[in-house]
Amino acid sequence: MAIPNVEDLSIEILNNMRNNIEYSRQSIINEQRRILLVTKEEENKFQITIGFAITRLWNLGMIKRIDKGRDIITDLGREQLRLDREELNKRLAKYNTSVKNNRAII
Known about the structure:
Elements: H1 6-17, E1 23-24, H2 25-36, H3 43-59, E2 63-67, E3 70-73, H4 75-81, H5 85-105
Antiparallel strand pairs: 1-3, 2-3
Helix pairs in contact: 1-3, 1-5, 2-3
């Protein structure tokens, strides 16, 4: 199975976290690896993509770190899940554009 883009993977991570249970980063990564059936050839791309997805959710305030390596979904994250998937995808992509623009300015 192909590795999804950062936006789609971010949405899947939020969906998996919606139960309001604290998750270790490793459990988030392992769960997505299992769902996506990541092969050895895809592992490097998967690691990079999921790292970006988790960091993006954290930077946007949709998940928060409650302890080293442990995250939980926030009220904002749950609220975002109520949006149409396409709208949430746009919001996540907009973040990516703003980060690129800021880096270009610096």
